[in-house]
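In this supplementary section we document a worked example of the pipeline. Step one takes a protein sequence of length 191 as its only input; no multiple sequence alignment statistics are reported here. Step two produces a three-dimensional model, which step three serialises into structure tokens for compact storage. The input and output of this example are shown verbatim.
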Amino acid sequence: SNRTVTLNTTATCNGPTPVTASASATLTVQSISHTLSATAAASPSAVASGGAASLSASATDSLGHGVATWSWSDGGAGGSFAPSAGVQNPSYTAAANTGDSTRQLAITVTATCAGPSPISASASTTLSVSPVAHTLSVSAAASPGTVASGGSASLSASATDSRGHAIIGWQWSDAGAGGSFAPSPNAPDPT
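The serialised model returned by step three reads:
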């Protein structure tokens, strides 16, 4: 806020009989606006699933104060900051992107100045995180592992999709050996 200052002056003449007089004036001193601006950047701006980027931030205080604290956030996206989220220029490791499309992460930094009346400013940068490669791994087993001609075995299979998709179909085959599958060759665990 503005401040009013009273200025006083006294004058004395240098004659045979010195005379002194005083006067005062008021002066309104306008306050300087205190602002803080921040910037943020990621390099590179696009990474693979689980990849890392170097983050950088800067802040400018209109009154020349330094920055007392830095605080980075990925908005709950699950990544990690090293050595911590409380340094000016950390590295950031993105969480695995098991979705089907590239994720756009808003990574935000908040700077707080070190002045007598601390203020804060925030800035964001965008980091693109590619999805994991789409793979499907399948395992199969027979129990018992050896049967007599015409015998039966319990079969089991499991599958894992790298992006978490449900398994929608199975197809067993004996490569033309003449066996059969019950209840069907389309069951995950037939005999």
